[in-house]
Amino acid sequence: MSDPALVEVRDLTVDYVGDNSVARAVNGISFDIKAGEAFGLAGESGCGKSTVAFALARLTRMPGLVTGGEVRFNGENVLAFSKDRLRRYRWGEVSFVFQSAMNALNPVIPVSEQIEDGIVAHRPHLGREAVRARAAEMFELVGISPRRLDDYPHQFSGGMRQRICIAMALALEPKLIIMDEPTTALDVVVQRDIIEQICDLKARFGFSVLFITHDLGLMIEFCDRIGVMYAGELVEVAPASSILTAPQHPYTRALGRSFPPLTGPRVRLEGIEGTPPSLSALPGGCRFSPRCGEAIPICMTRVPLLQPTPVTGGQAACHLLK
Ligand code: ADP
Ligand code: MG
Hints:
This protein has 322 residues and is of the alpha/beta class.
């Protein structure tokens, strides 16, 4: 079969449990990431993107709790992994690059040691020389001279530190790299540079990527498919190329209007009127209906289900599609 799914997410539900309340941050979402595919998660801040990313890596921590659904990786049930299996899964099969990753490097330890420790933990049979060689190879891969391996984190620029984190994420040849706002703290030129480099590496090694960024333009360029989230739910999944040209959900259209075009004349950005609902006071029916300029009465009362959208070959959840 072509395009087997590497990751299958089914009805994933994640809650944040408070003393007297429960906030359902992710409400039964389903999507696949295929082998070698870059899948993006878009949506305004607070819609649940990071919560999904953490759940995929089995990094959900209290007060967060996965309360429903499944995550399958190569057909295996990730949520049922033993401690030992989980250790191999994390970094060995799935690795993570966060926005703050570059600050996660320990400032008092040379970078080489931090990379090498990670390799040794997962490849205990490798000798010292081989581990060192692998670390040097990873440095070269992300465009940093291996001569700088023994430098300390503060001796590198922010962009270089983020490259080092990417090198660490790639060192064990994972099948999936989760990048949650990986370059947000960097300037635009460095951002693009790093993303292009990850594109090259992806083409060479064939790993899959789950990419989260608020930069819709960058996401469209880098990703094959994009899932658009709103208030904890997926409202549309579509090829990246149709997110701007054939958006099927009113929220996808609104997102598209609120981001600056890469080319052409400057236009006034509309933004999206209003704010996403609080998880403790969700509207009835479609969660986007109070902000939707196209809403009709049924939108306020009935929850729209994700359904195939022949125009894009994807799916969207909107009553107007019928
Ligand atoms: P995004 O990454 O799309 O900005 P998040 O996944 O971080 O969104 O957050 C989704 C929702 O879950 C938000 O309403 C946020 O306030 C809530 N949330 C996230 N982390 C926690 C936490 N540790 N405790 C309580 N609520 C949280
Ligand atoms: Mg986030």
